[in-house]
Fold each of these.
Amino acid sequence: MLSFLDVESAQRSSQSEEVARRGIEAQESSNLALYTLALQHDAARLYAEAAGAYSQLLEQPLITGADRERAAPGDPSLMLHFLALKNLSALESRGDDKAPGRADLLESALQHALHALAIDDTDGLLWLRLGRLASQTGRVSLARHALEQVRVSPSRRACAAQKRSLADHDLAARLTGPCHPPLPLSLCS
């Protein structure tokens, strides 16, 4: 079937595509500004404000719509989604273990870490945090799995984390048992 399109309609169509593209770029710019604000609050030790900014970022349409399977490599929305989840998990896992509501914060941190790993499962520090959080919440099998992921694929960041935290190394040894020897620190240099 043949169809004809007048020049004016074609121009309107290309203009609306341009407006839509600019709208996405504006949203990405706004999301980046919100992420930067969250980082600044975190650096200034304004943890409640940082957590609020990360949560607000996670509610943005481009961020919630970012999907690992459909996104192009290096998609800024997917990267911001991952980083916001990872940083929010880190914020929630800080603090006094005896503080009221701590169990809920640890559970939330664990869920954010799991969602971040669903986006990028190559982050050794995140696997290590997941192992710690799972151990603190009594999920021994999840803790073991997370710490085995760090041991199976020792990235430089995971090794740096292992060097920094002997407590995590001891936890990994207790959970994974003698069948998996600890990573030689010589691999981490």
Note: Residues 85 and 112 are 5 Å apart (CA to CA).
Amino acid sequence: MSFGKLWFLLIVYAFIFQGCAKAQNLALHKSYTISAKPNYDLSAPPSDSTSLTDGIYSSSGKTFWTQKTTVGWKWKEFVKVTIDLGKKQPVGSVSLSTAKRRNTDVYYPWGIYVFLSNDQHGYFYEGKAYLQKSTVEKKDKRGLFELNNIDKSARYVTIAVAPRGKNHFLFFDEIEVNKGGWLAGELSGHNISRQNIRYVVDSLRSVENPMIQFISTFKNSDQAKKDIKLFSQGSSTKDVASMDITKLKDVQSKVLKQRAAQLQARLQTSFIAEKYNPWTELPVNVVPNQNVDSLSYDKVILKGGSVYGAFTLSNLDSKQQIFQFKSPVSRAFSFYRVDYIGSKYKTRIADPLVPVSISDTLQPGVSQLYLFSLNNIQSDSTLHFNIASPQKRLTARIHTQVIDKTPQFQLNAVNWGYLTYPMLRDIKKEAIKDMKKHHINTFVVPPSAIPNLNSQDFEPFKQYLGYLPKDSKVFLFMNYKYSTTRLGSKGTPFMSDTWKKMFGDWYQKVVSIAQNVGFSASNIYLYPYDEVKKNKNIRDFQRFARWAKGNLSNLQLYATITNKKAADALYNYLDIAQFFIGSGLYSKYKRRGTENWVYSILGSSRSLSPYRYYRLLAWKAFLYDVEGIGFWNYAGNEQKTFINTAGFNVPRDYTAIYNSKSHDIISSRRWEAFKLGMEDYKVLKLHEIFFGKRQTGKLVKSVVNNPNNVVKAAEVRRSMLNKIKEK
């Protein structure tokens, strides 16, 4: 026998032996760590650290969660178990035993996700464990969830579990890590830090959950029941969450086709277009109601303002349809498809505005939101927009009436759009143009672009200023929280005579460069500390402000303020005090010569209501009688963020825009809602001129105090404009 044949037979024998032999449980009696201590009284105690790998399954004759061999949690949103196998070993499969019971708050988890690592620093996602079998024991339904065919070598196995909800219970009794074959490969793929495992799980769920929600909407129909039962391996329709992602997509496709057939039978058309509020949430399942032949939009605006409108388009045909769009010939007109993007909260959010030119394709049963805008409108106009498929055509009419009255006052706005951030580094000019288009008139120069006290290199500062509009306000963020920026490279003691001399020379140089670039000195503000909180920093800021305002002519100071201690110490020295809106301090401090602004911090921003958190910010400015607004941040993510960037890659998510591969800026519903709010403010000020602050304030209050009524601002604004028109 040749060596080659012998080698082949050995490989075949190895696979046969591996398949026949009972797999070794590598986790047996191994140590593990848990992200949240067990806290259910009737199962294992909080100090338990062995039950999940002791090889003992809870008794079938007793309630699952009243046994000390079961580990339990109540009201936890996330649980992570990491098993140390002791050394690098081939991992073939991972299983977890759990239970649920009808008419209680005990459910199978939403998801069980498996990660592997060799060093506990870099983790690799291997897949989701799915329900393999379930047995009824007493009143409990025991379930074994398993991920097979891993075949990777690793030392650490992490099982990340997303319970059904924070008000529910979660129980396991055993985790097994079964040994893989001797051909197990090395870890590969996207390297994930331990801290980001939670965000990975959230991102995965943000893709799965909308499909689960959508399917669940139709699960009572006979066909959906059959499809779900087929793809969930015989489980009930309530276990749709246990399906593989591929199976979920298959069921969703079938359900969408069924939906299309039902709607077509009821509405007798191949597609439907319906008007939709541009700022309201878009549910997973938009149900079209009425078959119309045309859409009509009638708008009233101030000269130079913008118009927004939206509609949903639903394909009711059994096949995909290509829709043709014929836009009006106008440079002011823009047309977008509102795409979905995953959020931190495991949902899909309709937010990015992806430009559409002449056509778009929709699958059967799909409802898609589209948004259009008209910008900087100078006169009355009527435009027509056509939507056509091979079977049908309809027209949208957009009529705009322009009121040629504009107040002189502009609300100040800042959003910390640092051109040095990854999202903007390659598109600086485009970003400035975009921010100015959205009525941002104040720009912050980041510390990295500001020269040190004893630096001779002012070129980066000069170049940065070169990008900014010359009629804008400029805040120089010096970031004196850190000694490296406060003291200079020579470490000169802060506020010493030498330091003061250095600072005076530095300040004169900075102002001179700004003026040479084209800025007025009156638009330059120093921004020494951000959200100063610590007592020492507050005292240092106060010392600096007292000296600087008394010794450097025309020097202007700006600060962000989040607490009363900082406000008491600094307010009288500030030219602009921008208060965190949640502090309520903006109403407690007033002084001639100091402008009060407010700002909000919008983390996990893509999940926020465009109307409530972005459009109404300007309405609050009027109600609170402040002169400027802001939000963190325009593009503050730590990496480029595209519309398909997974949520776990941007866990904080401070951005109002998205990047595109072609280096264009992808806007969002939130960013456009902010712009509209800035234009609303002009209407409010004009109404105040004609009808007084009290009457205007009463109307504004009715809007701000009803933030969930997304049509309220539009109704009040139109009423105001109709009254203004008569003046």
Note: The radius of gyration is 31 Å.
Amino acid sequence: MIAPRHRVTHSAGLLVAIALTWNPATVAASALGNLRRGEAVEVSGEWNPAARVFVATRIEKLPGGRSPSARGAIESLDASTTRFSLFGRQVSVDEATTFETDSGKSEGRFADLMPGMRVDVSARTGDPGNWEARKIVWRGLKSSDRVKGVITDVGPPTDTVQTIQISGLDIRVTHDTDLKADYLMEELLGTLFSDEGDASLPHLQLWRQRLGGYARMTTYRDDGYSLSTASDDSLVGQPAVALQAAGHWGGTLQSLVDLRVGSEQSWDDRRFSVANARVEILQAYAILRSRRERGGALVVGKQRVRDEREWLFDEYLDAVRLYLTLTRPLVLEASYIPSVLPPPGESFATWDDLLLRARYIPDSRNEVNVYWLMRRDSSPRRRQPVYLGISGSGRPARWLRGWLEGALLRGEDKGRSQRAYALDLGTTFTTTGRVRPNLTMAYAVGSGEQPGDPYSQEFRQTGYEDNSGRFGGVSSFKYYGEVLDPELSNIQLMTAAAGIRFGYTASVDAVAHVYRQQRPDDGLRAALPLGGAPDGSSRDLGREIDFIFGVQNILRCASAAYGFGLFEPGRALEATDRVATRHRLSLRVGF
């Protein structure tokens, strides 16, 4: 147990560290003046036909050199010379040029091309101003324009604009052009202006600060939510408006301030009420990092701590986090998470956590890590868990995605030693066309208590988890069930899902769950407030089916999601014959 004086000391130390590094900044710095000849980059933006220049909105530095490539709309074609114009470059096609669809199928020829058609061209550089096409992808492409290659020329920067070239293609860089960190730092630190859902790119530049934010409304309509005979139908709305101030103050110092105004509105028994109206500082942190590929990054302050599937963390926490990159792509992480200024009423108000983690991140799609998490709890419960775990997620092939979460729970709970475990694994199979059906199979188990055992064998998640993620669609949802939403504690879950994704903007998912207790017990840890406890003899908890509909990038700034779930209780809950349903609708607009 941590003494109060000790808690005051380390809390004051954290606040001093925040004050010494305070400045609103962003992980995505301005690209203006920060690019060099010979660097490999990926440039996102749009072609300006009047000025005959590609206007960059974001530039990401890439490892190693590469031949030029571009994705955009054909301006004109010349059948007599088998050439077409793309972003002002003349692209020549010959017998060695291969044609493919987005799914990788070899198909097509020059005669299939036409003005206005979107293509993705991988090229060699030929005569000045000309590209020789090696491969042309001509079906199922994204609607965004992009250029990749090595910077061949860099013009002198002014206060507002600079011109660079990639193999003869002029690219305009402005103060609003974001320079994205390399993929490794991006995976570690995230993108500040896409903290929740689709990107809400900042639209207002104020000196070295950028302002952005979002407005969001989430509503829940519940029926039979407690599985009791009482009238428990309810409608809850959670409106929120957030403002984020970020900027870049040199090449090594960044930070973010994130404010949110929100409340909870409910309609119950024809009565309207508003509760929890508040203004929150969700995030206020600074980042100090090295410019070198082998170096480190220090993040200090209140920040969103989360993992890919939100299985360990998804919470805004006071933290000091250190990342060391000694041998890429291996990253060592040490994070101290004290309870300095927790929100009122939160269970983690008395927790202090230490996380040590080794993360192998070969690219932006794949990661495997091992971790050790220890907690000190100053509450009378004296719960001191220690987690030893492995976590992995990735996409080894375009048609295959998967994940693995495994953890051993040790330490003590009320002076009783713990010996528990949990496992969660699954895979998603998908096609690679523009319309992409997908199929997901998953299994998860958290160990349960064994009567008479001197050790506690009931697994408990960290208390920071949210258990939200995606399978093959564009919208996140509660992957253990929208209605029951259980903690992975003394429970087995078998999940099967099927969905279809329409390009990069919309998706539909149908998800089915079967729940069983690991060991019969009269308790159940779940978000669903049960009117009656399990009977303690049957392991059959029930079944649930969820439907998730999602749309993103509406007018490049908005997204919408709708979820419907129905939970049918099993034999362990046969004291009730009711089913519980939940409707969830979320609308979000970035600005």
Note: The mean pLDDT is 85.
Amino acid sequence: MTILIAFEERLVRNLASNSLISNASPHQYGLTDFTRSLADPLQHSVIRYLYDVNIPVFEAMPAYIAEEGYKNPMGRSVNRTAFTKAKELEGSFFDWLRHNPGPEKDFGMCMKVNTCGCVEGKRLLMYSIMYRAIPARMTHGMRSIL
């Protein structure tokens, strides 16, 4: 029993050190604005959008850039993007959204995060992109510049 309590205490202290919970005083913990915001449906949309759209695009980006000859694709078709490569589809991002109501709703909610001043939503979006969602092989060296 003592080992379990010690483990739980270490786990909770780790969460507090990463600002996922607050540590008001010894052995007294609470929610932060960030962890409280995780129960917000807006955040659920952001997380789903990251996994459904952003991560596949990030993973397809190196191959897409190589195919473009490492040049700016300005003036090219909107149907030839890292997104269309990632999803292996014809048409544009908005064509795809039109036929995928779940991601379309999540996209709308992400736009709301960017326009409504939802600071915690923006933090979650950036935290997920930079430190959690992108595979480690793609962020090599990025953390040192942030």
Note: The first helix runs from residue 2 to 17.
